[in-house]
Structure formats: C-alpha cells, structure tokens
Design goal:
Blueprint: H1 3-22, E1 35-36, E2 47-49, E3 68-70, E4 78-79, E5 92-94, E6 102-103, E7 116-118, E8 126-127, E9 140-142, E10 150-151, E11 164-166, H2 179-182, E12 189-191, E13 199-201, E14 215-217, E15 225-227, E16 238-240, E17 251-253, E18 265-268, H3 275-284, E19 290-293, H4 301-308, E20 315-317, E21 336-338, E22 360-362, E23 383-385, E24 407-409, E25 431-433, E26 455-458, E27 465-466, E28 479-483, E29 486-487, E30 500-506, E31 521-527, H5 537-540, E32 551-556, H6 565-572, E33 580-584, E34 604-608, E35 628-630, H7 640-645, E36 652-654, H8 666-669, E37 676-678, E38 684-685, H9 691-699, E39 704-706, E40 713-715, H10 730-733, H11 736-760, H12 762-784, E41 790-795, H13 801-815, E42 820-822, H14 823-826, H15 832-841, E43 843-850, H16 852-855, H17 858-874, E44 879-883, H18 894-902, E45 907-909, H19 910-913, H20 917-929
Parallel strand pairs: 2-3, 3-5, 4-6, 5-7, 7-9, 8-10, 9-11, 11-12, 12-14, 13-15, 14-16, 15-17, 16-18, 18-19, 19-20, 20-21, 21-22, 22-23, 23-24, 24-25, 25-26, 26-28, 27-29, 28-30, 30-31, 31-32, 32-33, 33-34, 34-35, 35-36, 36-37, 37-39, 38-40, 41-42, 41-43, 43-44, 44-45
Antiparallel strand pairs: 1-2
C-alpha cells in the first residue's frame, strides 16, 4: 500500500476508535483551574472556587448553572465582555485581590441574577457609564481598595436594587462624586472611608428626593467639616467618623437636631474633635443608643459624662483606648460596656458599680490579675468576657451576685485551680469557657451550682485526673471538652443530657461511658505515644454502651498509635446508630471483614494515615448507605476494592496522598452516585494504561475530579513533571498491537473472501475481466475504423490441430476460398493476448473448434471470451461453434452456457455429420456467408442437421 493510502487508513481507524469520546458532552465538573464546593444535595446551589490559582484570565469552563464564583487572589488584569456571558444563574461573584485595571462595558450584561459583586483590592480608576449594565438585581457592590477617581454620572443607572455600596480606600475627593449613588432608590448602606474628602456637606448635593440611606461610613478621611443642613437623610441611623479630622480638628455642623432624629449608632474612634464640638454632638443626638469613642488623649470622666447625658445611650465601646482609672463611667443606663484592649491593670472599685442595667461587660485583652471587684454588684449581668488576662485565681465572692450570668469567658488566663463555691450562685449559666489555663483540679466546683450549664470548655489545661463525680452537678450539660491524663470510670456520671464529648487523653486511657445515655458525638484526641496495643478488654468495652452515638472520631497525634484492628471491631460493636466514623492515624493495618457489621447506618467513613493496602472489599457490605469515604494517606496502590464493594450511595470519595499509579475508569462506573473525587498527590503513570481514566475525567459530566488538571506525572522519566491530562491518549488507540489486530483481521477476511470467490465466482470474474479488455480494444478499433483482414479466426486446441489441417483447411480455404487466421501460422511474435484480441477484431467471424481439450485450455477460454464480447458489444453474429465431440452440459464452460442462453443458433456437430461431411461444410459456408446482423436468422436453431 502506498504511504498516502496507509496514512489515510490509519486516520479513519483512529477516528472510528475515538468517535465515542468525541460524542461525549463537554467538560462540566473536572474544571481546569477551579473546584466545585462539595454539597450533600446535588440539586443545591453550585459554588465554584477559583481563588489563589495565579489565573491571568477568567476560566472558560465555568459550569453554566454556577451560582457563586470565587476568583479572588489571582493575576487578572482585565475583565472582557465574554468572560461571564453564559452564567445567567450566577448570584455571587468575587474578584477581590487581583490587578484589574479595566472592565469592558457590558461585561456583566448577562448576569441578571447577580446579587453580590466584590471587586475590592484591584486597580480600577474610574467607573464608566455602562460598566454595571444588566445588574438590575445587584444588592451588594464592593469597590473598596482601588484607585477610583471618577464616577460617571450614569454609572449606577442600571443598579435599581442596590442596597450596599462599599467605596472605601479610593481616591474620591468631592462629595458630588457620590451623588449618583445617593439617588439609588433602595440604598441603605454607603462606605466612603479612606478617601480624600476634606468636607462632607449636604448643601453641595443636588438630589431630587431624599435618600433612604441608613448607614454612612466616612471614617479615615481628612474631614475638616461634617455638615448636615438639608433633610436628605431622614432615615439615617448610623454614622462612622472614626479617625476623621487628622489634618485638623473636625467641625460638627448640624444646627437642627431633627435632621438626625433617627441616629442610633455613632462611631468617633480617635476622631480629632474639640471638646466644645463634642458637646454639640451630644446636643444633636436624642436617640443615640450605641457610641464608640476613641481619643488620642486619655479618655477621662469629663468626656464620658458628656455622652452619658444622652438618656437613650445603651452601649458604650471604649475598646483600644487608654481609659482613666478613676471613677470611669457614670452612665447608669448602659446595658453593654466594652473595655477590651484598654491597657488596664485593674478596674477601680466603684467605677461601674452604678450600672445596674449592665447586661454585657467585655474586658478581654487587658492585664487584670483578678475579676474586677465591681462585677459583684452587677446583678443584671448576663455576659462577662475576661479572656486573655492574667487572672490566676477565682474566689467564691467574684460571682456572688451575678446570678443572672449566662455566659462566662475565662479563656487564656493563668487559673490553676477552682474552689468548690466559685460557680455556686451561677444557676443561669449556660456557657463557660475555661480553656487555655493551668487547671490541675476542679475542686468539686461542678458538683454544685451551674445547674443549667450547657457548654463547658476545659481544653488545653493540665488536669491530671478526672475523679468520680467531677461533673455530677452539671445535669443540663450538652457539650464538654476536657483534657486529662487519667479518667476514672465514673468521671462522667451525672451527665445524662450530654450530647457532645471532646476528650484529650493519653493512649493508655481507662474509662467507660455507661453514664452518657444521650451522647451523639464523641471526639477523642490521643497523645503521649506509649502503646495503645496494650489496651485492655475493659477499656474496649467502655464503648459498648454508646447506643445513641452518631459520630465517633479518634485522632492520634505524633507517630502511629497502632490500635489493633481486632480492638476496632469490639470498639464499634455497640454503636448501632453510628453515622460518622473517623480514625486518623489510629490503626496499624486495614480493618477486617465484619468490623462494621453492627454499624449498618454508617454514612461517613474516614480512615487516614493507615496502611490499607490489604483492604478487603467485604468490609463495605454491611454499610449500604455509605455516602462519604475518605481514605487519604493510606498507602493504597489499587482501587479494585471499590469495584468489588460497589457502594451504591457513595457521593464523596477522597483518595489523596496515596500510591495510585494506574486507575481503571471502570472503578467509577461501579459508583453510580459519585459526584466528588479527590485523587491529588498520587504518583500517576503517564502512559496508555491510564488512557481510559484520562478520557473519563475529561468526558464525564457527573463526577467532579478535584484539581484534575493539576495532577502531575511521576513516571516514566520522559513524562515526569508534566500534567496527567496533557498526555496524548490518541496515540494509545493506534498502538502496534491494535494495528496487528486490524491487519490480521483484514487478512483473514480477505483469505476467506478470496476462497469463496475462487470456488464459486472464479469463472464469472475471469469472464468479466476479459470482457473489460475486449471493451477497451473494441473502443480503439471503432475509432480507427480498420477493415477486416480475415474471414474468420479459428480458435482450437493444439490437440485438435490435426483435424483442422486435415479436414477444415482443405475445404474452407482451398475449396470454398475463405481466408482463415490460425494462431500458429498468422500470429505476430510478441504478446499472445494482444495477438488474440487483434485477430478476433480483424476477423468477420470466429470459428471455435470445441472439444474436451478446448474446454480445458486457458488460451481457448480467452479466445472465446473475446469473441463473446464482440458478440454482445456490437450485437453481431460473429461466433460459429464447431463441436468435434459430444460433450455433456455439465462439462460446458460458463462461457458456452451463457452463449446458449443468449443466442441459440449457429453451432454444428461433427460427430452427427457422420459420412455426410459435405452437408456439414455447406452449413459452415452458409454461417460464414451470413451477415453480421443478428436478425439474419437463416440458420437452424439448435444443432445443425447434416
């Protein structure tokens, strides 16, 4: 086969092989640079995360039905009109922290469902007239931290539903720049902080009607004047002037306090405003409820007293200031006070004693060594935050009168012990955080009091031993997080309502859960790597009574804990309602068959950092409802166990950080519900053994293969470091084996076909071939118009040559005078086939001397074939058949039978002539004399009568 034909054949074969893949739907879930956040319900909203991928363009493979896209922290410089053209269902778009300098007009025209657009931390300089075209349902627009100087007067004309606009950290200078924003019909919140405004005066605004604005943030501007003299903000509730007036003092100009009659929140953190101006502020506000006050100088009693005259004030925020340690506040009407991060070492007695309505006190991030004394007088206190101080001791009097306390936060202090009476009066307490302290004992503090406590965090302490009845008074407790080196078997007695238990223990723990009838969530952090292999039977049986448990987690820090798998079976035996099981760095080998036979309701199974290379697929048979499977970092080399297990409900599969090199795509065909697959950090082989898997990743439209386009090749050496999905799988379909298969198949078919043709059709094909040659020759002769040279061409076999010379020639040539052509006498030296053809077409007639030898002769067959074509083609009676022998019909060649069917005439029998040869030769003469027209039927049909 010529090279061109061979290449064409290869192309066709390759096309046929790849056709099923070419017909696959387009990539839907295995995105090139993004991941789809996993959802338990496939019909839920689709959230795509493309953040921190160093993208320079918006990915072109985002699913059309996506509802949220995160593109923050990339390298985008420009947004083009076509980037989001097909995302008609998108509701949230985050372009934060890129290098965007330009957005084409109409880039968001197809995002009619978008409600939130975040373009903060980019490099935009102006907002054009048609920038936001199409965003009729947008409610939140974040443009902070850009370089915006110019806003076109029509830039916000399409944003009819906009409620929140964030324009902080830009280069706006004039209040008229924001006039288009204030005309929005549904505007509620506007931030123009960190800009270049030097004044904010409503007289400069030309609005056709008042604004519905409720929250105004002009903080961190170099304002010298804040003036509201026109009634354009009748609904304004919050004003933030923090850090204003830094270039000079801020003048407050609101002559008519009715213009601010709805103000409830005012933020003056470190605002440079003279004391006389502060008095004007105080006099302008009749409805103020929340005040944040910061001052470069020391916040003193005089300054505070000014604002405390506002009768409606309920919350005072003095955080991140230096506050005078004298009589701090006389605001007896306060319900919330924030003194966090005020560098205070103590709160003098009487400072807040008058605040009889105080419900929340925050003094975290200070230097208190004791609970402030005034807390004892705050009988209405409900929330007390003392986190991150230097408190080392709690006394029985600290909370003696705070009987309404609901939340008490003592995290990150230096408390080493508790006394019995410390929480005795806190009968309404529900939340207590004592984590990150130095506790070694509880001192029976939980045996009495705190009857309504529901949340208790004792983690990150140094408790050596949990004793019997340590928590017996906490009859309402639902959540407990505790650490201990030793836990008594009855340590949790009395916790009849506990639902979640988090314990940090050494490996050699000994305890049971007989007194936890409602426990649903158990998390055990194991540490102090000694030997869990020595875990005794009593310790394992500690888990037998967890009949209500739904979630069980065991995490071992440090080296592998080495939990014996036999113990695993015993551990899970009593958990008949378990739905979620996690074992991280716990077991020394794969769980054995029957381990989960008592956990038929299991939906989520996580086993990490364990050697599961010998995993038996029978493990999964008792858990048909399994939906989430995480076997990351488990030394898996094959996924055959999934093919045999075939968990029908499995939707989430994490197999990252294993030793998988080759993956058969049929594995995932056995998981009909799979929607999320993580195979990151596996040493993939980039050769044809993974071709099917690669095609499956690209073509399937159900399962998201997380970060599939980032998977790299580990072998062979030539492919190392390349991307797995960049491997050319087409070459795999045309390998040597495949070509050999095709070739051998074609050869077999050709052999069978040739045998069939030779046996059944050889004469017909041969006849057709010579007819074709005759047709070619006849065409030439017609063009030349050459006259006949002979009266007849005599076709005979060499065995019949004696009869021709003895009987035929003397009569036909010598007596009758016909000019005959005989091949041995008249043929020109050269090609025999050419001689036969030329002679037949140069003779008026062809006489075939037929005998047994004639029928067996190849050359005679060719001669009669040529004569037959002359007969058929020109419709001339040119053929004369002379039979020297009686030949049965079954021995007749196909050519004679065809002649017999077409024209039953002009054939003569020498045996029938007998002694009357004269009649025979007269019939031959008559045949030679007759015309070529087939209508000249002057001879008898059938054998000639002699």
């Amino acid at each position: 086969m010529p090279p061109g034909g061979r290449s064409s054949l290869c192309f066709i074969l390759r096309l046929l092989v790849l056709l099923p893949f070419l017909l696959q739907p387009s990539l839907a879930y295995s995105l090139k640079n993004c991941t789809i956040d996993y959802s338990d319900d496939p019909l839920d909203d689709v959230f795509v995360d493309c953040s921190s991928r160093e993208l320079v363009t918006v990915p072109d493979d985002l699913p059309r039905h996506v509802t949220s896209v995160k593109l923050f922290h990339n390298l985008l410089k420009k947004i083009h009109r076509k980037d989001f053209g097909s995302l008609s269902k998108l509701r949230s778009l985050n372009l934060q922290d890129n290098y965007i300098t330009h957005v084409d007009d109409g880039s968001f025209i197809h995002l009619g469902a978008l409600t939130t657009l975040d373009i903060r931390s980019n490099r935009l300089t102006n907002l054009t007239a048609n920038l936001f075209q199409g965003l009729s349902n947008l409610t939140v627009l974040v443009l902070s931290t850009n370089h915006i100087k110019v806003i076109h007067t029509s830039a916000f004309q399409f944003l009819s539903s906009l409620q929140t606009v964030m324009l902080g950290f830009n280069n706006l200078q004039q209040i008229t720049d924001i006039q288009p924003i204030l005309q929005l019909p549904h505007l509620q919140e506007l931030s123009i902080s960190y800009n270049l405004f030097t004044s904010f005066e409503t007289k400069d605004l030309q609005l056709s009607k008042s604004s519905g604005l409720k929250v105004l943030d002009v903080s961190y501007n170099k304002l010298k004047k804040f003036s509201i003299t026109t009634p354009i903000f009748p609904h304004l509730q919050s004003i933030d002037l923090s850090r204003c007036g830094q270039a000079g003092v801020l003048k407050w100009d609101i002559p008519d306090k009715s213009l601010l009659r709805n103000i409830t929140h005012l933020y003056l953190g470190h605002t440079l405003i003279p004391y006389d101006e502060i008095q004007q502020v105080q006099q302008s506000l009749d409805s103020l409820m929340h005040l944040r006050l910061g001052y470069k100088k020391l916040i003193n009693k005089r300054l505070l007293d000014t604002f405390c005259k506002i009768p409606t004030l309920r919350k005072l925020d003095l955080s991140s200031n230096k506050v005078a340690s004298k009589k701090l506040v006389s605001c007896s009407q306060l319900s919330e006070l924030d003194l966090s991060d005020t560098h205070m070492t103590e709160l003098p007695k009487g400072s807040i004693r008058s605040m009889k309505r105080l419900r929340s006190l925050n003094v975290e991030h200070n230097f208190y060594h004791n609970v402030p004394h005034d807390v004892r007088s705050l009988s209405s206190l409900e929330i007390l935050n003392l986190n991150d101080n230097l408190i080392s001791e709690l006394s029985c009097d600290d909370f003696i009168n705070t009987t309404r306390l609901i939340e008490l936060h003592l995290k990150t202090n230096r408390i080493a012990k508790l006394v019995k009476c410390v929480f005795e009066k806190l009968n309404e307490l529900k939340v207590l955080d004592l984590s990150h302290n130095m506790l070694q004992t509880f001192g029976n503090s939980f045996k009495t009091g705190a009857l309504k406590l529901e949340f208790l965090d004792l983690s990150e302490n140094s408790v050596q031993h949990l004793e019997k009845g340590d928590f017996q008074g906490l009859i309402s407790l639902k959540y407990l997080n505790v650490v201990s080196d030793d836990i008594d078997n009855t340590a949790f007695k009395g916790l009849n309502n506990l639902e979640t238990l988090v314990i940090h223990v050494p490996l050699s723990f000994k305890y049971n859960f007989t007194d936890l009838p409602k426990l649903e969530n158990l998390i055990i952090y194991l540490s102090n790597v000694s030997s869990l292999k020595s875990l005794n039977t009593n310790s394992v049986e500690a888990f037998f009574n967890l009949k209500s448990l739904k979630s069980f987690t065991m995490i071992c820090s440090g080296h592998l804990c080495g939990f014996d798998c036999d113990k695993l079976t015993q551990t899970l035996r009593g958990m008949n309602h378990l739905e979620d099981f996690t074992a991280d760095n716990i077991y020394n080998s794969a769980a054995q068959v029957g381990t989960l036979r008592f956990n038929v309701h299991l939906k989520r199974l996580t086993i990490r950092q364990t050697d599961l290379s010998e995993l038996d697929p029978e493990l999964f048979h008792p858990i048909p409802n399994l939906e989430v499977l995480d076997f990351s970092s488990c030394k898996l080399k094959s996924l055959d166990f999934l093919v045999k297990a075939r968990p029908p409900a499995l939707r989430f599969l994490n197999l990252s950080n294993n030793e998988l090199t080759v993956i058969n795509e049929t594995v995932f065909q056995s998981l009909p519900a799979l929607t999320y697959l993580d195979l990151d950090n596996n040493p993939f082989t980039c050769d044809c053994s993974n071709a099917g898997f690669i095609q499956w990743v690209i073509g399937n439209n159900q399962t998201q293969v997380v970060n599939a386009h980032q998977y790299t090749c580990s072998s062979p050496g030539a492919e190392q470091g390349r991307k797995l999905l960049d491997f050319d799988v087409q070459s795999c379909w045309m390998d040597v084996g495949f070509l050999c298969f095709i070739s051998s198949t074609c050869l077999v078919v050709l052999t069978l076909l040739s045998s069939f043709i030779y046996h059944f059709l050889r004469w017909q094909l041969s006849y057709g071939f010579y007819l074709f040659l005759a047709f070619i020759y006849d065409s030439r002769k017609k063009k030349k118009g050459t006259p006949h040279q002979f009266d007849a061409f005599v076709s005979y076999n060499v065995h019949d040559e004696a009869w021709v010379y003895r009987e035929m020639l003397p009569v036909l040539e010598e007596e009758q005078g016909w000019r005959l052509c005989l091949h041995h006498r008249d043929f020109q030296p050269g090609e025999p086939m050419e001689n036969i053809t030329d002679t037949i077409y140069s003779s008026r007639k062809t006489i075939c001397v037929i005998s047994q030898h004639f029928l067996q002769s190849e050359w005679c067959s060719r001669e009669i074939q040529m004569a037959s074509f002359h007969l058929f083609d020109e419709q001339k009676d040119v053929l004369i058949l002379l039979f020297l022998e009686e030949i049965p019909d079954q021995q007749m060649s196909p050519y004679y039978r065809m002649r017999k069917l077409v024209k039953r005439r002009t054939y003569l029998s020498w045996p029938q002539a007998g002694q009357h040869t004269g009649v025979f030769w007269q019939n031959v003469r008559r045949a030679l004399e007759t015309g070529d027209d087939p209508t000249d039927n002057n001879l008898l049909t059938g054998p000639a009568q002699c």
